[in-house]
Amino acid sequence: MSKLAAQPLYRQVLREVMAAIEAGEWDEDESLPSETDLAKRFGVSQGTVRKALDALVADAVLYRRQGVGTFVAGTSDFLLRGLFTTPAGADGVKPSVELLSCVKIHAGEQLAEILGLRRAAALWQVRRLLRVGGQVIGLEEMLLPEANFPSLEMRRIRELKGNLRELCWRDFGVRLKDGQVRYRAVLAGQTEARLLMTDVNEPLLQLVRLAVDFEGRPQVWSVAWLRTEELAFEPPVLSPQV
Amino acid sequence: MSKLAAQPLYRQVLREVMAAIEAGEWDEDESLPSETDLAKRFGVSQGTVRKALDALVADAVLYRRQGVGTFVAGTSDFLLRGLFTTPAGADGVKPSVELLSCVKIHAGEQLAEILGLRRAAALWQVRRLLRVGGQVIGLEEMLLPEANFPSLEMRRIRELKGNLRELCWRDFGVRLKDGQVRYRAVLAGQTEARLLMTDVNEPLLQLVRLAVDFEGRPQVWSVAWLRTEELAFEPPVLSPQV
DNA sequence: GTTACATCTTTTGTCTTATATAAGACCTGT
DNA sequence: ACAGGTCTTATATAAGACAAAAGATGTAAC
């Protein structure tokens, strides 16, 4: 292992492992070589490899099973994650994503700032719809720097069933993870109501997030509007009685 | 150190350290003994103490500064945490909490299930209001098992400026951390509107959370309604143009 | 006297070695 | 066929040695 120094060993190992994953050396849900083997390969001890893998497990890039092995984790879509109470959506209904549009636009001042780009840099604007059991549940707009994702085709997005996170990973080697996430409640305007096929002034959960790559660089900025009334949530709230 | 076995050493150390913190052996922001000293005290190696402290740092019970020491972290309130962009609230405005009520009620079926209590167990129902710069921003209802928090007095809550998390900690030795958190958007009903001093049908962010102690046992169930329009959020959303 | 700088001490952080524990595969006797 | 060892290979834990960072302290130059 090349000792660039100025950086702890386990950090270098982490990078090397990440690079190997990005190079497609091991497939999704495929087991990596054992910690001992990786240790030999990088010329460090098992404990050091372990510390590197620990960090990747914490970032949900890998998962482990004692006595069995360490595996590459899949890349499920952000939008669909953590919205439902049951793991795969209640009642056996499967959420699906419909791609609405994918066009090139130019970054405004604030957005360029947030994504660390020069002003008016080229961006992909991707819009998609989240459906659950036939009903439209959410609308999302995502903005990606064109520089990092040069050829973003609608065909390809459709191929991956709208899973942009997987696309970023497979086609561009960028592994996204959640950065900041902000929530707020808003009323549906005309545009949102039309796209969500619901009424103006329905309350919507607005989700603003900045996804970063595993080095912490901002990569995708997105806003989603969700009809939370319809979601299979926890038992509803107590009746106020004050 | 008593070797109960069936549990790794570092886990036992973790418990002992946690117990010492609960016993008030070290104050908030006070430094613990060095890892080497703790190692001597518990009769284990520094590395083992380190692994125990690692876990507590991950749970934000402790924080560390290389070359300086390890310190007991404070207990800021849940409600106020992570809502603002700037660390202490924008524009120098300080959020404050007003206690509305604190009464004893009986658990419904679902709630008893969630909190792991028998049906109709006694609960404290605490209601409080979040103010920012004079304006009412949020309303929260919290439910705590009376068994775990026997004497909950309004006077005491007021003393701690409404910080229930700190109260649970100081008076009952229960260190709370976030468990599940769910978000949804709802419209203000008459009750919420009246208490929040706003209009019916304003969109509100509803936050349902279950706080657990550091052993993972559910302790506090709460619902909050927040006026997110007023919060100092990220730059507002792009104008839809589809 | 004060300041710049080296050095010492104490602390957390990293790394290796050795050993324990978990899981599954493979025997092997009934 | 199947129940139960035991072998192999994985991750998990523990201890000790050493490195790096931060602050305190001493000291020479001015």
Automatic annotation (TrEMBL), chains A, B:
GO MF entries: DNA binding; DNA-binding transcription factor activity
Segments forming domain HTH gntR-type: 7-75
SMART domains documented for this protein: HTH_GNTR, UTRA
PROSITE patterns reported for this sequence: HTH_GNTR
Record key words, sorted: DNA-binding, Transcription, Transcription regulation
Xref: Pfam families: GntR, UTRA
Biological process, per Gene Ontology: negative regulation of DNA-templated transcription
PANTHER family linked: MANNOSYL-D-GLYCERATE TRANSPORT/METABOLISM SYSTEM REPRESSOR MNGR-RELATED (PTHR44846), MANNOSYL-D-GLYCERATE TRANSPORT_METABOLISM SYSTEM REPRESSOR MNGR-RELATED (PTHR44846:SF1)
UniProt name for this protein: GntR family transcriptional regulator
